[in-house]
Amino acid sequence: MRSSVRTVPYDREAVAVVADVFGVAATLAPFQLPGGTVYQMTVGGSGERPVVLLTLWPTIQRLDVIAQAATTVFTRVKQVEFVDGIEALFRRTSGEYLIVAASGKVIVRS
């Protein structure tokens, strides 16, 4: 069975789609922006892959990814592409992207 790719703008509604793709809950972060909501979710790893903490800031087009080996702050995010049950690809306006896989793998192309 082939997975379909969906693309949505990186906005407040995208947070629920990201959580659904990974089968996790999105919660409000313990900190917030004035006039903007910040969300967090944990993507479980598998085997030797670590757990990844995602902090989504759609109001300011930012994504923070904290994995075992690195922390990445990705700005100017415009849209998110999803392969259900496999990965979410956060794309910048300039074309660079950051992938978070359901397995906990993180890939940045810039």
What is the N-to-C succession of helices and strands? EHEEEEEEEEE
Our measurement of the CA-to-CA distance between the termini, rounded to an integer number of angstroms, reads 31 Å
How many separate helices?
1
Ranges where pLDDT stays below 50 over 5 or more residues in a row are none
Neighbour order of strands in the largest sheet: 1-7-8-9-10
Mean pLDDT across every amino acid position: 90
Largest sheet report:
5 strands, antiparallel
Please tell me how large the radius of gyration is.
13 Å
State the total count of DSSP E strands: 10
Strand content: 35-45%
SS-derived structural category: mainly beta
Choose one word for the global shape. Answer: globular
* Helix residue percentage: 10-25%
Keywords:
five-stranded antiparallel sheet; 10 strands; 110 residues
Walk me through the structure.
The protein is mainly beta and 110 residues long. It has one helix spanning 12-22, and strands at residues 5-9, 27-28, 39-43, 52-57, 62-66, 71-74, 77-83, 87-92, 97-101, 106-109. Strands 1-7-8-9-10 form a 5-stranded antiparallel beta sheet, with helices on one face. Strands 2-3-4-5-6 form a 5-stranded antiparallel beta sheet, with helices on one face. Strand 5 (62-66) and strand 6 (71-74) form a beta hairpin. The radius of gyration is 13 Å and the shape is globular.
Give the helices and strands, then pairings.
Layout: E1 5-9, H1 12-22, E2 27-28, E3 39-43, E4 52-57, E5 62-66, E6 71-74, E7 77-83, E8 87-92, E9 97-101, E10 106-109
Antiparallel strand pairs: 1-7, 2-3, 3-4, 4-5, 5-6, 7-8, 8-9, 9-10
